[in-house]
Specification:
Elements (H helix, E strand, L loop, with lengths): L2 E6 L9 E9 L2 E11 L4 E2 L4 E2 L6 H23 L7 H8 L7 H14 L3 H18 L11 H14 L4 H20 L29 H8 L6 H15 L5 H5 L6 E2 L2 E5 L6 E5 L2 H7 L24 H25 L10 H10 L5 H8 L4 H8 L5 H11 L2
Antiparallel strand pairs: 1-2, 2-3, 4-5, 6-7, 7-8
Protein backbone atom coordinates (compact mmCIF):
# COMPACT_ATOMS: atom_id res chain seq x y z
CA UNK A 1 0.00 0.00 0.00
CA UNK A 2 1.41 3.38 -0.99
CA UNK A 3 1.55 6.18 1.59
CA UNK A 4 1.50 9.96 1.16
CA UNK A 5 3.26 12.40 3.46
CA UNK A 6 4.32 16.04 3.36
CA UNK A 7 8.00 16.69 4.10
CA UNK A 8 10.54 19.50 4.09
CA UNK A 9 13.39 18.44 1.83
CA UNK A 10 16.96 19.37 2.76
CA UNK A 11 18.18 20.77 -0.56
CA UNK A 12 18.18 24.58 -0.34
CA UNK A 13 17.45 26.88 -3.25
CA UNK A 14 19.53 29.97 -4.11
CA UNK A 15 17.59 32.04 -1.59
CA UNK A 16 18.50 29.63 1.21
CA UNK A 17 14.97 28.25 1.57
CA UNK A 18 13.92 24.60 1.68
CA UNK A 19 11.27 22.99 -0.57
CA UNK A 20 8.00 21.60 0.76
CA UNK A 21 7.30 18.32 -1.03
CA UNK A 22 4.80 15.49 -1.08
CA UNK A 23 6.53 12.12 -0.53
CA UNK A 24 4.91 9.00 -1.96
CA UNK A 25 6.28 5.69 -0.62
CA UNK A 26 5.53 2.21 -1.91
CA UNK A 27 7.45 -1.03 -1.40
CA UNK A 28 10.08 0.96 0.55
CA UNK A 29 10.74 3.18 -2.43
CA UNK A 30 9.93 6.90 -2.38
CA UNK A 31 9.26 9.56 -4.98
CA UNK A 32 8.71 13.26 -4.38
CA UNK A 33 6.28 15.82 -5.76
CA UNK A 34 7.48 19.41 -5.56
CA UNK A 35 4.72 21.77 -4.37
CA UNK A 36 6.56 24.85 -5.63
CA UNK A 37 6.74 26.21 -2.09
CA UNK A 38 9.98 27.11 -0.27
CA UNK A 39 10.34 28.29 3.33
CA UNK A 40 13.05 28.92 5.90
CA UNK A 41 13.73 25.80 7.97
CA UNK A 42 12.75 27.59 11.19
CA UNK A 43 9.15 27.83 9.95
CA UNK A 44 8.71 24.07 9.49
CA UNK A 45 6.99 22.06 12.24
CA UNK A 46 8.45 18.57 11.78
CA UNK A 47 6.17 16.96 14.37
CA UNK A 48 2.90 18.22 12.88
CA UNK A 49 4.13 18.27 9.29
CA UNK A 50 3.00 21.81 8.58
CA UNK A 51 4.13 25.44 8.50
CA UNK A 52 4.43 27.13 11.87
CA UNK A 53 2.04 29.97 12.74
CA UNK A 54 5.02 32.33 12.98
CA UNK A 55 5.24 32.31 9.17
CA UNK A 56 3.30 35.34 7.81
CA UNK A 57 1.45 33.15 5.27
CA UNK A 58 1.09 30.00 7.39
CA UNK A 59 -2.69 29.72 7.02
CA UNK A 60 -2.65 29.95 3.22
CA UNK A 61 0.34 27.61 2.90
CA UNK A 62 -1.13 24.98 5.23
CA UNK A 63 -4.45 25.04 3.39
CA UNK A 64 -2.53 24.57 0.16
CA UNK A 65 -0.54 21.66 1.64
CA UNK A 66 -3.71 19.94 2.89
CA UNK A 67 -5.29 20.24 -0.55
CA UNK A 68 -2.17 18.82 -2.26
CA UNK A 69 -1.94 15.88 0.17
CA UNK A 70 -5.64 15.15 -0.32
CA UNK A 71 -5.23 15.29 -4.08
CA UNK A 72 -2.25 12.94 -3.97
CA UNK A 73 -4.06 10.53 -1.63
CA UNK A 74 -7.05 10.43 -3.95
CA UNK A 75 -4.92 9.52 -6.96
CA UNK A 76 -2.89 6.97 -4.97
CA UNK A 77 -6.07 5.22 -3.84
CA UNK A 78 -7.40 5.11 -7.39
CA UNK A 79 -4.08 3.64 -8.52
CA UNK A 80 -4.16 0.99 -5.79
CA UNK A 81 -7.67 -0.07 -6.83
CA UNK A 82 -6.50 -0.97 -10.33
CA UNK A 83 -5.77 -4.65 -10.96
CA UNK A 84 -2.41 -3.97 -12.64
CA UNK A 85 0.61 -3.12 -10.50
CA UNK A 86 1.98 0.44 -10.59
CA UNK A 87 5.36 1.44 -9.24
CA UNK A 88 5.84 4.54 -7.08
CA UNK A 89 7.41 6.34 -10.06
CA UNK A 90 4.37 5.54 -12.23
CA UNK A 91 2.03 6.82 -9.50
CA UNK A 92 4.06 10.02 -9.18
CA UNK A 93 4.02 10.67 -12.91
CA UNK A 94 0.23 10.57 -12.93
CA UNK A 95 0.01 13.04 -10.07
CA UNK A 96 2.58 15.59 -11.29
CA UNK A 97 0.95 19.01 -11.66
CA UNK A 98 2.10 20.54 -14.90
CA UNK A 99 0.45 23.94 -14.71
CA UNK A 100 2.50 25.33 -11.82
CA UNK A 101 1.51 27.32 -8.76
CA UNK A 102 -1.60 29.41 -9.16
CA UNK A 103 -1.55 33.22 -9.31
CA UNK A 104 -4.62 33.55 -7.10
CA UNK A 105 -3.08 31.44 -4.34
CA UNK A 106 -0.28 34.01 -4.13
CA UNK A 107 -2.88 36.80 -4.43
CA UNK A 108 -4.49 35.43 -1.25
CA UNK A 109 -1.08 35.57 0.43
CA UNK A 110 -0.77 39.22 -0.58
CA UNK A 111 -4.26 40.02 0.78
CA UNK A 112 -3.49 38.23 4.03
CA UNK A 113 -0.29 40.28 4.38
CA UNK A 114 -2.36 43.46 4.03
CA UNK A 115 -4.70 42.27 6.79
CA UNK A 116 -1.77 41.41 9.03
CA UNK A 117 -0.48 45.00 8.59
CA UNK A 118 -3.97 46.43 9.29
CA UNK A 119 -4.20 47.83 5.74
CA UNK A 120 -7.94 47.18 5.65
CA UNK A 121 -8.88 49.88 3.16
CA UNK A 122 -6.18 48.70 0.75
CA UNK A 123 -7.32 45.11 1.33
CA UNK A 124 -10.91 45.94 0.33
CA UNK A 125 -9.76 47.88 -2.75
CA UNK A 126 -7.40 45.18 -4.00
CA UNK A 127 -9.84 42.36 -3.21
CA UNK A 128 -12.30 44.12 -5.56
CA UNK A 129 -9.66 44.48 -8.27
CA UNK A 130 -8.77 40.79 -8.10
CA UNK A 131 -12.47 39.93 -8.33
CA UNK A 132 -12.71 41.96 -11.55
CA UNK A 133 -9.60 40.17 -12.89
CA UNK A 134 -11.34 36.83 -12.27
CA UNK A 135 -14.46 38.10 -14.03
CA UNK A 136 -12.33 38.99 -17.05
CA UNK A 137 -10.71 35.54 -17.06
CA UNK A 138 -14.00 33.75 -16.51
CA UNK A 139 -12.33 31.53 -13.91
CA UNK A 140 -10.56 31.75 -10.57
CA UNK A 141 -7.37 29.87 -11.46
CA UNK A 142 -4.40 31.18 -13.44
CA UNK A 143 -1.04 29.35 -13.74
CA UNK A 144 1.89 31.76 -13.81
CA UNK A 145 3.04 30.45 -17.18
CA UNK A 146 -0.27 31.68 -18.62
CA UNK A 147 0.12 35.17 -17.17
CA UNK A 148 1.89 36.73 -20.14
CA UNK A 149 2.09 40.04 -21.98
CA UNK A 150 -0.73 39.15 -24.38
CA UNK A 151 -3.12 38.40 -21.51
CA UNK A 152 -2.17 41.61 -19.66
CA UNK A 153 -2.74 43.75 -22.76
CA UNK A 154 -6.17 42.15 -23.29
CA UNK A 155 -7.02 42.88 -19.65
CA UNK A 156 -5.85 46.48 -20.04
CA UNK A 157 -8.08 46.92 -23.11
CA UNK A 158 -10.99 45.30 -21.27
CA UNK A 159 -10.72 47.74 -18.37
CA UNK A 160 -10.31 50.80 -20.59
CA UNK A 161 -13.04 50.10 -23.13
CA UNK A 162 -15.48 47.59 -21.63
CA UNK A 163 -15.40 48.86 -18.04
CA UNK A 164 -14.70 52.51 -19.01
CA UNK A 165 -12.06 52.94 -16.29
CA UNK A 166 -9.61 55.83 -16.36
CA UNK A 167 -6.01 55.15 -17.48
CA UNK A 168 -4.77 55.89 -13.94
CA UNK A 169 -7.19 53.36 -12.44
CA UNK A 170 -6.14 50.74 -14.99
CA UNK A 171 -2.51 51.29 -13.99
CA UNK A 172 -3.47 50.46 -10.40
CA UNK A 173 -4.78 47.06 -11.56
CA UNK A 174 -1.55 46.31 -13.41
CA UNK A 175 0.58 47.41 -10.44
CA UNK A 176 -1.37 45.01 -8.22
CA UNK A 177 -0.75 42.09 -10.61
CA UNK A 178 2.95 43.03 -10.76
CA UNK A 179 3.14 43.19 -6.95
CA UNK A 180 1.67 39.68 -6.62
CA UNK A 181 4.04 38.36 -9.30
CA UNK A 182 7.01 39.87 -7.43
CA UNK A 183 5.80 38.19 -4.24
CA UNK A 184 5.70 34.86 -6.07
CA UNK A 185 9.29 35.36 -7.24
CA UNK A 186 10.44 36.38 -3.75
CA UNK A 187 8.84 33.24 -2.30
CA UNK A 188 10.45 31.08 -5.01
CA UNK A 189 7.01 30.10 -6.30
CA UNK A 190 7.66 31.03 -9.90
CA UNK A 191 10.68 31.76 -12.07
CA UNK A 192 11.82 35.29 -12.97
CA UNK A 193 12.32 34.13 -16.54
CA UNK A 194 8.54 34.17 -17.03
CA UNK A 195 8.23 37.73 -15.69
CA UNK A 196 5.93 39.65 -18.10
CA UNK A 197 6.78 43.18 -16.93
CA UNK A 198 9.61 45.52 -17.88
CA UNK A 199 11.42 46.80 -20.96
CA UNK A 200 10.26 45.07 -24.12
CA UNK A 201 7.37 43.46 -22.26
CA UNK A 202 4.43 45.01 -20.37
CA UNK A 203 5.58 48.47 -19.36
CA UNK A 204 3.55 50.28 -16.71
CA UNK A 205 3.54 54.03 -17.24
CA UNK A 206 1.76 56.12 -14.65
CA UNK A 207 -0.16 58.86 -16.48
CA UNK A 208 0.06 62.40 -15.19
CA UNK A 209 -2.94 63.25 -13.06
CA UNK A 210 -4.52 66.66 -12.71
CA UNK A 211 -4.72 67.89 -9.15
CA UNK A 212 -6.93 70.94 -8.69
CA UNK A 213 -7.22 72.66 -5.33
CA UNK A 214 -9.34 75.51 -4.04
CA UNK A 215 -8.12 79.10 -4.07
CA UNK A 216 -7.88 81.28 -0.96
CA UNK A 217 -11.08 83.12 -1.97
CA UNK A 218 -12.98 79.86 -2.35
CA UNK A 219 -11.79 78.61 1.04
CA UNK A 220 -12.92 81.89 2.60
CA UNK A 221 -16.40 81.13 1.28
CA UNK A 222 -16.18 77.85 3.16
CA UNK A 223 -15.06 79.61 6.33
CA UNK A 224 -17.94 82.11 6.13
CA UNK A 225 -20.62 79.67 4.97
CA UNK A 226 -24.17 80.45 6.09
CA UNK A 227 -27.63 79.09 5.36
CA UNK A 228 -26.43 75.50 5.16
CA UNK A 229 -27.54 72.49 7.19
CA UNK A 230 -25.87 71.44 10.43
CA UNK A 231 -24.62 68.25 8.76
CA UNK A 232 -23.06 70.26 5.93
CA UNK A 233 -21.45 72.64 8.44
CA UNK A 234 -19.87 69.72 10.31
CA UNK A 235 -18.54 68.32 7.03
CA UNK A 236 -17.00 71.73 6.25
CA UNK A 237 -15.44 71.83 9.73
CA UNK A 238 -13.67 68.51 9.16
CA UNK A 239 -12.53 69.62 5.69
CA UNK A 240 -11.13 72.89 7.06
CA UNK A 241 -9.26 71.11 9.88
CA UNK A 242 -7.64 68.90 7.28
CA UNK A 243 -6.64 72.00 5.30
CA UNK A 244 -5.40 73.97 8.33
CA UNK A 245 -3.01 71.13 9.21
CA UNK A 246 -1.45 70.89 5.73
CA UNK A 247 -3.92 68.36 4.41
CA UNK A 248 -3.88 65.61 7.03
CA UNK A 249 -5.97 62.66 5.88
CA UNK A 250 -9.61 62.31 6.87
CA UNK A 251 -8.92 59.10 8.78
CA UNK A 252 -6.46 60.97 10.99
CA UNK A 253 -8.84 63.93 11.46
CA UNK A 254 -11.66 61.64 12.61
CA UNK A 255 -9.35 60.01 15.18
CA UNK A 256 -7.98 63.24 16.66
CA UNK A 257 -8.27 63.26 20.45
CA UNK A 258 -8.22 66.17 22.85
CA UNK A 259 -5.19 64.47 24.43
CA UNK A 260 -3.31 65.03 21.14
CA UNK A 261 -3.20 68.79 21.84
CA UNK A 262 -0.72 70.29 24.26
CA UNK A 263 0.89 73.72 24.63
CA UNK A 264 -0.77 74.99 21.48
CA UNK A 265 0.49 72.11 19.33
CA UNK A 266 -1.00 69.03 17.72
CA UNK A 267 1.06 65.89 18.26
CA UNK A 268 -0.24 62.76 16.55
CA UNK A 269 0.94 59.63 14.76
CA UNK A 270 -0.19 59.20 11.16
CA UNK A 271 -2.15 56.05 10.44
CA UNK A 272 -0.73 55.66 6.93
CA UNK A 273 2.97 55.44 7.81
CA UNK A 274 3.11 55.77 11.63
CA UNK A 275 5.13 58.99 11.39
CA UNK A 276 4.98 61.28 14.40
CA UNK A 277 3.79 64.77 13.50
CA UNK A 278 3.96 67.99 15.52
CA UNK A 279 2.15 71.07 14.19
CA UNK A 280 1.13 74.43 15.61
CA UNK A 281 -2.61 74.76 16.17
CA UNK A 282 -3.80 77.75 14.06
CA UNK A 283 -6.30 80.20 15.56
CA UNK A 284 -8.79 79.27 12.83
CA UNK A 285 -8.63 75.62 13.96
CA UNK A 286 -9.20 76.62 17.60
CA UNK A 287 -12.43 78.39 16.58
CA UNK A 288 -13.70 75.16 15.05
CA UNK A 289 -12.58 72.98 17.96
CA UNK A 290 -14.49 75.25 20.38
CA UNK A 291 -17.72 73.98 18.78
CA UNK A 292 -17.00 70.42 19.93
CA UNK A 293 -15.54 70.78 23.43
CA UNK A 294 -18.85 70.22 25.20
CA UNK A 295 -19.45 66.79 23.64
CA UNK A 296 -18.54 64.63 26.65
CA UNK A 297 -19.77 61.38 25.04
CA UNK A 298 -17.16 61.22 22.28
CA UNK A 299 -14.70 59.03 24.21
CA UNK A 300 -12.02 61.70 24.08
CA UNK A 301 -12.37 62.23 20.32
CA UNK A 302 -12.64 65.77 18.96
CA UNK A 303 -15.20 64.79 16.32
CA UNK A 304 -18.02 62.39 17.25
CA UNK A 305 -18.30 60.24 14.12
CA UNK A 306 -16.25 57.33 15.57
CA UNK A 307 -17.32 57.71 19.20
CA UNK A 308 -19.06 54.30 19.40
CA UNK A 309 -16.23 52.41 17.68
CA UNK A 310 -13.44 50.50 19.41
CA UNK A 311 -10.41 52.31 17.95
CA UNK A 312 -8.28 49.20 18.58
CA UNK A 313 -10.43 47.31 16.08
CA UNK A 314 -8.54 48.56 13.03
CA UNK A 315 -10.71 46.67 10.54
CA UNK A 316 -13.95 48.16 11.88
CA UNK A 317 -12.38 51.64 12.08
CA UNK A 318 -11.32 51.35 8.43
CA UNK A 319 -14.80 50.31 7.27
CA UNK A 320 -16.51 53.03 9.29
CA UNK A 321 -14.06 55.67 8.06
CA UNK A 322 -14.83 54.76 4.44
CA UNK A 323 -18.57 55.05 5.09
CA UNK A 324 -18.20 58.35 6.97
CA UNK A 325 -15.97 59.79 4.23
CA UNK A 326 -18.59 59.00 1.57
CA UNK A 327 -21.23 60.82 3.63
CA UNK A 328 -18.94 63.79 4.22
CA UNK A 329 -18.17 64.04 0.50
CA UNK A 330 -21.88 64.04 -0.40
CA UNK A 331 -22.58 66.86 2.04
CA UNK A 332 -19.59 68.86 0.82
CA UNK A 333 -20.74 68.63 -2.80
CA UNK A 334 -24.14 70.02 -1.89
CA UNK A 335 -22.53 72.80 0.15
CA UNK A 336 -20.16 73.97 -2.61
CA UNK A 337 -23.04 74.27 -5.06
CA UNK A 338 -24.93 76.47 -2.61
CA UNK A 339 -21.80 78.59 -2.16
CA UNK A 340 -21.43 79.08 -5.92
CA UNK A 341 -18.16 77.13 -6.22
CA UNK A 342 -18.04 75.14 -9.46
CA UNK A 343 -15.05 72.92 -8.70
CA UNK A 344 -15.39 69.32 -7.62
CA UNK A 345 -14.76 68.62 -3.94
CA UNK A 346 -13.91 65.74 -1.65
CA UNK A 347 -12.11 65.43 1.66
CA UNK A 348 -8.84 64.78 -0.20
CA UNK A 349 -9.14 68.10 -2.05
CA UNK A 350 -8.18 69.79 1.24
CA UNK A 351 -4.66 68.43 0.69
CA UNK A 352 -4.61 69.65 -2.91
CA UNK A 353 -5.86 73.06 -1.77
CA UNK A 354 -2.97 73.44 0.65
CA UNK A 355 -0.59 72.62 -2.20
CA UNK A 356 -2.38 75.03 -4.54
CA UNK A 357 -2.16 78.00 -2.16
CA UNK A 358 1.37 77.25 -0.95
CA UNK A 359 2.54 77.11 -4.59
CA UNK A 360 6.19 78.13 -4.63
CA UNK A 361 5.92 80.31 -1.52
CA UNK A 362 7.35 77.71 0.85
CA UNK A 363 10.78 76.01 0.47
CA UNK A 364 10.39 72.47 -0.84
CA UNK A 365 12.13 70.97 2.22
CA UNK A 366 9.60 72.63 4.51
CA UNK A 367 6.73 71.39 2.34
CA UNK A 368 8.17 67.89 2.58
CA UNK A 369 8.02 68.19 6.36
CA UNK A 370 4.47 69.53 6.32
CA UNK A 371 3.24 66.85 3.91
CA UNK A 372 5.10 64.14 5.84
CA UNK A 373 6.63 62.75 2.64
CA UNK A 374 9.50 60.27 3.06
CA UNK A 375 11.31 61.62 -0.01
CA UNK A 376 11.71 65.19 -1.21
CA UNK A 377 11.32 63.81 -4.75
CA UNK A 378 7.72 62.91 -3.89
CA UNK A 379 7.14 66.47 -2.69
CA UNK A 380 8.64 67.96 -5.86
CA UNK A 381 6.41 65.80 -8.06
CA UNK A 382 3.34 66.57 -5.97
CA UNK A 383 3.95 70.31 -5.84
CA UNK A 384 4.64 70.48 -9.58
CA UNK A 385 0.85 70.28 -10.01
CA UNK A 386 0.46 73.69 -8.38
CA UNK A 387 3.54 75.72 -9.40
CA UNK A 388 2.82 77.60 -12.62
CA UNK A 389 4.59 80.96 -12.20
CA UNK A 390 7.73 80.08 -14.20
CA UNK A 391 5.79 78.67 -17.15
CA UNK A 392 3.30 81.57 -17.05
CA UNK A 393 6.14 84.13 -17.07
CA UNK A 394 7.87 82.29 -19.92
CA UNK A 395 4.68 82.29 -21.99
CA UNK A 396 4.09 85.98 -21.32
CA UNK A 397 7.65 86.83 -22.31
CA UNK A 398 6.99 85.44 -25.79
CA UNK A 399 3.47 86.54 -26.61
CA UNK A 400 3.20 89.93 -24.86
CA UNK A 401 4.86 92.11 -27.50
Amino acid sequence: MATVRVVLRKKKNKAGRFPIAIRITKDRKSSFLNTGQYIDEKFWDEKNRNVRKSHPNSKVLNNFIVSKVAEANDKVLKSEMKPEYESVAEIRNKIVEKKGFDFFIVANMHLQNLKNRNKHHQYDTEFGRLKKFKEFLGKDVLPFNKLNVALLKKFETYLLHSKKLSPRTVVNYLILIRTIYNLAIAESITDRGLYPFGKGKMTIRIPESQKIGFTANEIQKFENAKDITEAQQKAIHIWLISFYFAGIRVGDVLQLKWADFNDGRLLYRMNKNSKLVSLKVPDKAIEIFDNYKDDSESNGLVFPQLKHIDLNDTEEVSKRTQSITRNLNRRLKIAVKQLGIKKNISMHIARHSFGNISGDKIPIQMLQKLYRHSSVTTTIRYQANFIHKDTDDALDSVINF
